[in-house]
Specification:
The chain is mainly alpha-helical and 126 residues long. It is built from three helices and two strands, in the order αββαα. The chain has a two-stranded antiparallel ribbon. Helix 1 runs antiparallel to helix 2. The longest helix is centred in the middle third of the chain and has 40 residues.
């Protein structure tokens, strides 16, 4: 069950990161005037801007490259985290010293309880 939940969270994180990246990309590009249609007077969305040149497009191109680099970095980091989580799960499945001593104590406790009940019945019978 946890495996499927972890997969769903991972997919949701990727979509969320992608949406955040696209939102930042579109805001920067719109702010530069790369995707908006300029009016002849130089007004874009109610503000004065200089007529657009190739600098807005190159900034957006740089932004796309940056987003791709970030995506690759995040993919590598999530892969490392997945491997670490898998190794921790394997370690948790194996009993440790605490579990071994707890099991021995449990057995001794049950044996002691059995001996106590047995002795109590023997005393009543005598």
């Amino acid at each position: 069950m946890m495996r499927y939940m972890a997969r769903g969270v991972n997919r949701g994180m990727k979509k969320g990161i992608l949406l955040i990246g696209l939102a930042v990309f579109s805001l920067v590009c719109l702010q530069d005037g790369a995707f908006s249609a300029e009016e002849p007077s130089g007004m874009v969305a109610g503000r004065n801007v200089a007529p657009s040149s190739d600098t807005g497009l190159t900034d957006c191109g740089k932004m796309v490259e940056l987003l791709q680099q970030q995506k690759e970095l995040i993919s590598r980091e999530t892969g490392q985290l997945k491997r670490e989580i898998a190794s921790l799960r394997e370690e948790l499945l194996q009993p440790g010293i605490k579990e071994i001593f707890a099991g021995i104590g449990y057995i001794f406790g049950l044996a002691g309880l059995g001996i106590y009940i047995s002795n109590r019945k023997n005393r009543r019978a005598q």
